[in-house]
Design brief:
By secondary structure, the protein is α+β, with helices and mostly antiparallel strands. It is built from two helices and five strands. Strand 4, helix 1 and strand 5 form a beta-alpha-beta unit.
């Protein structure tokens, strides 16, 4: 599975691709220069239950750590994942 990031000054997304098919998409909005809000995560039906959502969140976490950013997970899926995963809570605001 490949995850591609698209980023602009105001927003961006992480898209999961599997054999050329879109498996899932997570969108975010910038909330200043040093933090972003995960506002939506969706996984296409044929990929549900395969960990695509978790991979998208972890890609956002890796991006945040690499760039010294913080994340506010407002999307219910991302919020739940952060709540259940103590090792990524250091970048949550």
């Amino acid at each position: 599975m490949e995850i591609i990031q698209h980023n602009t000054e105001k927003a961006g997304n992480f898209k999961a691709l599997s054999d050329g098919k879109t498996a899932g998409l997570m969108t975010y909005t910038w909330a200043g220069k040093d933090k972003f809000i995960i506002d939506h995560t969706e996984v296409n039906d044929e990929f549900k239950g395969t960990g695509v959502g978790k991979k998208l969140v972890m890609e956002a976490v890796a991006f945040a750590r690499k760039n010294h950013l913080k994340i506010l997970p407002l999307c219910p899926f991302a919020k739940s994942f952060f709540d259940k995963t103590p090792e990524i809570q250091d970048i949550q605001f």
